[in-house]
Predict the structure.
Amino acid sequence: MTDSRERTQCGESRGFRDLVIVLVLLVVADGLVSQFLALSGLGLEMNPFLQAIVGGGKFLPLKVAGALLAGLVLFDFHRRRPKVAEASAMIFALTYTAILYWNIGVVFFASHQGL
């Protein structure tokens, strides 16, 4: 069993690296669910910058690019302020987890209502 504080080649802890990977995957999953909800008429994209493109082919690539960019920024910030970067990544991951659960709940609620 390895220590979660083991360092990668770039100097970040494996735990932080894994947290950022989970965060990026949560953002992408949120994009997939949001697009499904918007296209099926069950929900709306609440981000005002993304509302206009949610139905087009640019929405998911933009979500993926934004998630990857956010991950890179967190890695860069982690070199200077590791505790702040770790806390920020954890808060964002928890926030996106809650958003994703909410959106999935909307899908299940709508499917049981026969919509």
Summary: Residues 82-112 form the longest helix (31 residues). The chain has one domain: 14-112. The CA atoms of residues 24 and 67 lie 5 Å apart. Residues 14-112 form one domain.
